[in-house]
Design a protein that fits this description.
- Belongs to the phosducin family.
- The protein is elongated, with a radius of gyration of 26 Å.
- The protein has helices spanning about 5-10, 15-30, 40-50, 60-65, 70-75, 80-95, 110-120, 140-155, 205-215, 225-235; strands at about 105-110, 125-135, 160-165, 180-185, 190-195.
- The protein folds into 2 domains: about 15-95, no CATH class; about 105-215, Glutaredoxin, CATH 3.40.30.10.
- Helices cover about 50% and strands about 10% of the residues.
- Helix 8 links the parallel strand 2 (about 125-135) and strand 3 (about 160-165).
- With about 240 residues, the protein is an alpha/beta fold.
- Helix 2 crosses helix 6 (about 80-95) and helix 8 (about 140-155) packs across helix 9 (about 205-215).
- It contains 10 helices and 5 strands.
Length: about 240
């Protein structure tokens, strides 16, 4: 077997049970605070992860069974480390399965043409939520604030808003049917909610709007929290 093939095998991860175990072993060793470890454990870590081991023995080292000493070392404080490892694996899988563009904030549309363009030309996998509002109409400002919050939690959804007058269809979107939420995907209208605040309580929040849209299955799965944020929560 060539040195190049051995190198590829050394870096392979997530391939079957052995690959998962080996990947977990590497992750555990890399995440441990080696500076504060006793000398005996440092020596064990050196033996387990020494970059100077013989090339012809690298495959055997990669696939060998975990020793009793390794098990005793790796099981210490496993709960916190296992959470981090699981989050990393979930994030990697999520990143691989996430398609389409991502967006920041709510997009303001200034004309009917811009409205049509965002519906017809957006990526086919992107959900587009359009809020048609009018300044001074009850519920419009509150819904705008809710969408600002949801846009940060659903970056793969394109949230937009447009003034009813600017849309060029003010006669269709009179004050009585505002605020209106329209939901599109691949150019198709999935949701048409006139006077949508009638489906919400008098005082509503972003979570209420989220629950309403989810009740129709219109929102994708929420983005996973950043690993750094969750690690800070674990420390707290």
């Amino acid at each position: 077997m060539s040195d190049r093939l051995i190198d590829l095998e050394e870096t392979a991860t997530h391939t079957g049970p052995k690959g998962v175990i080996n990947d977990w072993r590497r992750f555990k060793l890399e995440s441990m605070d080696q500076e504060n470890l006793p000398h005996a454990k440092k020596e064990l870590l050196r033996q387990m992860s020494s970059p100077n081991r013989p090339k012809d023995d690298s495959r055997a080292n990669l696939n060998r069974k975990m020793s009793v000493q390794e098990y005793e070392l790796l099981k210490e404080e496993d709960e916190g480390c296992l959470k981090k490892y699981r989050r990393r694996c979930m994030q990697e899988m999520h990143d691989k399965l996430s398609f389409g563009p991502k967006f920041e904030g709510v997009h303001d549309l200034d004309s009917g043409e811009a409205f049509l363009e965002v519906i017809e030309k957006e990526h086919h996998s992107t959900v587009v939520v359009v809020h048609i509002y009018k300044v001074g109409v009850k519920g419009c400002e509150e819904l705008n604030n809710c969408l600002d919050c949801l846009a940060t939690e659903y970056p793969t959804v394109k949230f937009c808003r447009i003034d009813a007058v600017a849309s060029g269809a003010a006669e269709r979107f009179s004050d009585e049917v505002l605020p209106t939420l329209l939901v599109y995907k691949a150019g198709d209208l999935l949701g048409n909610f006139l006077a949508c605040t009638q489906h919400l309580s008098e005082e509503f929040f972003a979570t209420d709007v989220e629950a309403f849209l989810n009740s129709y299955g219109l929102l994708p799965e929420k983005e996973l929290p950043g690993m750094e944020d969750e690690e800070e929560n674990d420390v707290e």
